[in-house]
Specification:
Layout (H helix, E strand, L loop, with lengths): L24 H26 L1 H10 L11 H17 L55 H11 E9 L4 E7 L5 E8 L6 E3 L5 E3 H9 L9 E7 L2 E7 L4 E3 H6 L6 H20 L2 E2 L8 E4 L5 E3 L6 E2 L17 H6 L4 H18 L23 H10 L10 H5 L11
Antiparallel strand pairs: 1-2, 2-3, 3-7, 4-5, 6-7, 8-10, 9-12, 10-11
Helix pairs in contact: 1-2, 7-9, 9-10
Length: 414
């Protein structure tokens, strides 16, 4: 059987126009709605290509409104009120402490700079507090920038830029009440990764919490005088000796330090590290740039706890500090213990003191287990440096062993 053919359509008669059927009410309504639906379909296609299903639903739900030829009361009121309302709802940006401090720090390559500190986060962000003296504090409600900024400038006179790094800038300043020199450290708020809790229960950046634990009543650690929180930055007011220099510049000015002078400064650093660990704090970025020397008294002070963490017995699996001071176990296995890593950085520090340069900047192979040292150094000094720089972390001395080492034997255990 062949396939049945569809019935042929009747042809209209030649010469006569084809009669149109009378449109129904449904047809008339569809004809009126078709331009609107055609626009919505086109808008939907554009929305699908530009923003996905959410934009598609938004565009189809909105009727197309006619533009007004002249602005009416709605446009006048809304156009003026919207910016004013948004400006009143959000706090104004804090003006910089100085022209050199405007804006956040540019990102610094990880191969040359420090990575952010890691530690147990605190109860939450958005808090502020004071270690010494009054200051703003109100949960997540940050005080207006103008008020906090004016209060800061009423108490301190800002000076020159002392230094900058991956976490912020440090300025010289003078306390107006008594003329004492201070340092003001400004850290962009978006660089503060971890928060802790002060003894009074106030949440604060972890650096502030660690400084509050170690800086009270101990001369070997920089004293935190005050801190406050602005909408876009954290400000810390720190002590600053009248005549001071970081150890890096102190060494460069002399090329290298005699062993007697190096021994005294190294002893002070050991005491500062001992004090921090006894308070449950691990500095994690011991290097000459983070040691301040009072040129009048010879006192060494440990500064910059931005990479610090709570001391723990278990391994650390995140590195914070300067990569050129990282121990071999971190480079090889991605973990390290707090004390052996600290001993490694102390060995590099002692080498820089007596030799004037970093021991591994020229690509020495650590697997050799031998480190060339100048002949002018005493054998006890060479042995101590090589002991601290043992490739195997288990072969390095404990912190107590350093105080009892023959090169340090005239220094009592604190």
């Amino acid at each position: 059987m062949g396939r049945a053919m569809p019935p042929a359509r009747p042809r209209p008669r030649a010469g006569l126009p084809r009669a149109r059927p009378r449109p129904s009410r449904r047809d008339l309504a569809s004809a009126r709605l078709w331009p609107c639906w055609r626009w919505r379909c086109r808008a939907g296609i554009r929305a699908w290509g530009g923003g996905g299903t959410a934009a598609l639903r938004l565009r189809l739900a909105r009727p197309r409104s006619r533009p007004r030829l002249l602005p009416g009361p709605v446009e006048d009121t809304g156009g003026a009120a919207a910016p004013a309302a948004s400006a009143a709802a959000s706090p104004a940006r804090a003006p910089p402490l100085g022209s050199a401090a405007a804006g956040p720090e540019p990102p610094v390559p990880r191969s040359r700079e420090r990575t952010p500190g890691h530690g147990p986060p605190g109860a939450g962000e958005g808090h502020s507090g004071v270690v010494a003296g009054p200051g703003p504090s109100a949960d997540s409600r940050v005080p207006p920038a103008g008020t906090a900024q004016e209060a800061l400038l009423e108490r301190y006179r800002l000076g020159s830029l002392l230094g900058r790094g991956g976490f912020g800038r440090v300025f010289a300043a003078t306390r107006l009440s008594d003329g004492a020199p201070v340092a003001i450290k400004r850290v962009p708020r978006n660089r503060v990764r971890h928060w802790g809790e002060l003894p009074d229960g106030t949440s604060a950046p972890l650096e502030v919490v660690l400084l509050a634990k170690v800086s009270t009543g101990f001369p070997g650690v920089v004293q935190l005088l005050e801190w406050l929180e602005l909408p876009n930055c954290i400000v810390m007011v720190l002590e600053r000796p009248e005549q001071c220099q970081d150890l890096q510049r102190f060494i460069r000015a002399r090329q290298f330090l005699p062993e007697e002078e190096a021994r005294e400064l190294f002893r002070q650093v050991l005491e500062a590290v001992w004090h921090c660990t006894s308070c449950g704090v691990l500095h994690r970025d011991i290097k000459p740039e983070n040691i301040l020397v009072d040129l009048d008294t010879g006192q060494a002070k440990l500064i910059d706890f931005g990479c610090g963490a709570y001391l723990q017995d278990t391994v650390y699996t995140h590195f914070a500090g300067t990569l050129s001071y990282s121990p071999p176990e971190w480079n090889d296995f991605g973990w390290y213990h707090g004390e052996p890593a600290t001993i490694w950085s102390l060995g590099i520090l002692l080498h820089q003191m007596v030799c004037g340069e970093h021991p591994f900047r020229r690509g020495q192979n650590l697997s050799w287990g031998q480190l060339p040292l100048p002949q002018r150094l005493s054998q006890e000094c060479k042995d101590l440096i090589r002991w601290c720089l043992s490739v195997n972390s288990l072969d390095r001395p404990a912190l107590e062993d350093l105080f009892c080492d023959p090169w340090m034997q005239d220094i009592p255990l604190p």
